[in-house]
Design goal:
Blueprint (H helix, E strand, L loop, with lengths): L3 E5 L11 E8 L2 H9 L6 E4 L5 E2 L4 E8 L4 E6 L3 E7 L4 H10 L24 E2 L2 E2 L4 E8 L5 E5 L20 E11 L12 H7 L7 H15 L7 E2 L8 E3 H10 L6 E2 L4 E3 L2 H7 L6 E2 L2 E3 L7 E3 L5 H19 L8 E2 L1
Parallel strand pairs: 2-5, 3-5, 4-20
Antiparallel strand pairs: 1-2, 6-7, 7-12, 8-9, 10-11, 10-12, 13-19, 14-16, 15-16, 17-18, 18-19
The chain binds uridine-diphosphate-2(N-acetylglucosaminyl) butyric acid (EPU).
């Protein structure tokens, strides 16, 4: 364990922003992490996982702690289900593939989501009809103040759409060190009715899909629609899909009759922010080294050496335009730092 100084964070964030960390340390065990947390000379700390949900708008004048704690293990199992524990530093997609390889079902729809296991519960990652909470059993986290390890059950996490206690009351108070999932060993519950999964499977000529087939279908859809951060810097969906009242939606339909929506409750609907951004004319727009992705308007991209502050300005322009055109406020999904 070694503390470095003035380190570029470009390799540590999927947006590929070249901001600097004044101090940087990578920890590969809980013991190392506890030692770092005891260091009194660095009062301000930033916890970094896979760096896939952040936009760095400036140099970070603090100690960045990179959580690199690895390891996957089976906690217990019976005939139908298995509890699998993954440490926070495991890459999310590699963990999904590990489970699929063992024929453990439940997270196959979440294939190819960037980031690490430890960050996944914070925003309750989700895609193609499944959210992390559906397979979540518990997680362990170190309380920054007491340095004690606490267990969070599913109920204690208060999961919601791209939200959890770790973005609310527990924000900046805990570091998740591992997550335990409850997965199926047989009679897998398949989710194939969301979006284009069914047609993708049809194209693959598959009638009775396995979890392996679903993972392949999801990987194929994501590869077509979403840019690979290894080629073009990005943080996935930059904004959340906004929830509006049914009354507002009905009146918007008078001017925008093709506006899609998903039911949320008796009085509210969710509108795809990607549709709003496309309608506002931003899809595929490029401004020098940054812009809006050509296949999915919800994704802002860095083509090379964009500054985080420039991407933030573009995000604010998009928010203002959506507000003006539709009277809808869209909220950033990524953390702006
Ligand atoms: N749409 C457009 N233009 C676009 C993009 C989308 O018109 O450029 C409209 C279309 O009507 C489309 C609808 O939006 O049918 C939904 O699009 P999509 O299926 O791509 O899903 P999304 O709502 O835009 C959400 C998640 C994604 C997740 C997909 C699939 C959020 C903020 N985003 O996007 O998550 O992969 O559903 O489940 O909820 C992420 O969080 O980083 C992420 C990529």
């Amino acid at each position: 364990m070694q503390i470095s100084h003035n380190i570029s964070l470009k390799p540590y964030n999927t947006f590929g922003i070249d901001a600097k960390a004044k101090h940087f340390v990578s920890v590969s065990s809980i013991e190392e992490l506890k030692k770092v947390l005891e260091l009194t000379e660095y009062p301000n700390k930033l916890i970094l996982g896979g760096g896939s949900n952040m936009l760095l708008t400036k140099d970070q004048d603090l100690l960045v702690i990179h959580i690199n704690i690895k390891g996957i293990s089976i906690v217990s199992e019976d005939t139908d289900t298995v509890l699998v524990k993954a440490n926070a530093g495991e890459n999310w997609h590699e963990f999904v593939l590990w489970c699929i390889n063992k024929d453990f079902g439940g997270i196959e729809n979440l294939s190819l989501i960037p980031g690490n296991v430890g960050s996944a519960p914070i925003q309750n990652i989700g895609a193609y009809g499944v959210e992390l909470k559906d397979a979540f059993f518990s997680c362990e986290a170190i309380a920054l103040e007491s340095k004690k390890i606490e267990t969070f059950t599913k109920e204690a996490c208060y999961f919601d759409y791209r939200n959890s206690i770790f973005k609310q009351q527990a924000k900046d108070k805990y570091i998740i060190i591992n997550v335990t999932f409850k997965l199926t060993k047989q009679n897998h519950k398949l989710h194939i009715h969301y979006g284009t999964i069914a047609s993708e499977l049809e194209g693959m000529k598959i009638n009775n899909p396995t979890i392996q087939d679903i993972s392949k279908a999801v990987i194929s859809i994501r590869t077509q629609k979403l840019p690979n951060p290894k080629d073009i810097g990005n943080s996935g969906s930059f904004f959340k899909n906004p929830v509006i009242t049914k009354t507002q939606y009905q009146s918007l339909l008078e001017n925008f009759e093709d506006m899609p929506s998903y039911a949320v409750s008796d009085t509210e609907v969710k509108v795809p922010a990607g549709w709003l951004i496309e309608k506002a004319g931003f899809k595929g727009k490029r401004f020098g080294d940054y812009g809006v992705h050509k296949n999915q308007a919800l994704v802002l991209v860095n083509y090379g050496d964009a500054k985080g502050s420039d991407i933030l300005k573009l995000a604010e322009l998009i928010q203002k335009t959506i507000k003006r055109l539709f009277n809808i406020s869209i909220e950033a999904e990524v953390n702006i730092l």
